[in-house]
Design brief:
Helix content: 40-55%
Shape: globular
Number of helices: 8
Order of helices and strands: HHHHEEEEHEHEHEH
Bound molecules: zinc ion
């Protein structure tokens, strides 16, 4: 049992790319048990109540706000920052049976939060890869799981793109190339500061064949996103 856990942790070490404790990394003490999560909710509830006190909100006597500290704490622990506390999903690979072309999953839904302002980041992620000589492919929904795992944290889009790329690259061992493109809008741009609606940020991280041969594979990837009116933008 312990050996299995060590093996799993070892795989995990390869996948995480920022130090433990950062908003976009796993939390110290990860992975958390249900009991540990409950006690974190308690502590965060109390702290958020104080945060509202500082903002002169009489939340204790406001029927709409009296449960808000707990709601916010639970939202962070069980949804918004879930990827910091929960185990990375087990990812199995399968033989590609001779398929050596591009594999693409487009329009993977992304919900994240910017670690600068704690405002929503929403968009889509497109992932492409070419399996290696040994021809291992991974289950399609696992790409969604990877996006969820790294998206459900504090994030900056550039690093998030890098983290998703690194995870696919490590899980899909001996691949010939991986490309990840993230198209997202940031609430912190639309609701505060400059307050511009509709501006989307596009980030792309590519490796292997996606960087070679005059970017042919890269071109095929982006062309594929347009087929059947695939949503390149959001
Ligand atoms: Zn922000």
């Amino acid at each position: 049992m312990e050996e299995m856990e060590n093996k799993r942790r070892k795989k995990y070490d390869k996948i995480e790319c920022v130090p433990v404790g950062m908003a976009n990394g796993v939390a110290a003490g990860f992975p958390f048990t249900d009991k540990e999560k409950e006690s974190m909710v308690e502590e965060a509830t109390e702290a958020f109540g104080k945060f509202l006190d500082a903002l002169k909100c009489d939340w204790r006597n406001d029927p709409n706000s009296m449960e808000t500290p707990r709601r916010v704490a639970k939202a962070y622990v069980y949804d918004l920052w879930k990827g910091r506390y929960d185990n990375f999903t087990e990812i199995t690979s399968f033989p590609s049976d001779g398929y050596d072309g591009l594999i693409i999953e487009r329009n993977i839904s992304l919900t994240s939060m910017c670690s600068h302002h704690h405002q929503a980041i929403r968009g889509v992620v497109h992932i492409g890869y070419v399996a290696g000589e040994n021809g291992r492919v991974i289950g399609l929904s696992k790409l969604n799981r990877i996006v969820e795992h790294f998206g459900r944290r504090g994030a900056i889009q550039e690093q998030l793109t890098q983290a998703i790329h690194q995870a696919v690259d490590k899980v899909c061992e001996d691949n010939k190339g991986v490309i990840v493109s993230v198209v997202a809008t940031h609430n912190c741009v639309s609701c505060r500061g400059v307050k511009h609606q509709g501006a989307a940020m596009v980030t792309t991280k590519a490796s292997g064949v996606f960087m070679e041969n005059d970017n042919q594979a890269r071109k095929e990837f982006f062309d594929s996103l347009k087929i059947n009116n695939g949503h390149v933008s959001i």
